[in-house]
Write a structure and sequence with these properties.
A hairpin with a 5-residue loop joins strand 1 (20-24) and strand 2. The chain has helices at 6-14, 47-54, 61-66, 74-94; strands at 20-24, 30-34, 43-46. By secondary structure, the protein is α+β, with helices and mostly antiparallel strands. The protein is globular, with a radius of gyration of 13 Å. The two termini are 13 Å apart.
Length: 96
Amino acid sequence: MPKLTLHHLATLAHSPAEAPVLYVNESDELDVWAEALAPNDRIVLTREQLVEAMGDNCGTPGEQWDELSEGWTHEDVLAELEEVVNDAVEGVLATQ
């Protein structure tokens, strides 16, 4: 099963795509792509969910990722989202 990493979250935050998402690709790996191009049934995390997990920062999602709210670390955000993504990935892989 693919594992969520800080690299995935940073890529999602900084993606120039319109409405980027993290999804399970055809190779059963996590990847970032535009929501309109990713298969809906394989999406496991949206940038909106990532922004929500980062809290009330201002700026672009990439800027928010680079400068998290005081007291937060990237590992905190990863821990917050890991279970959500793992559950979603299991659901995607179970339907194959």
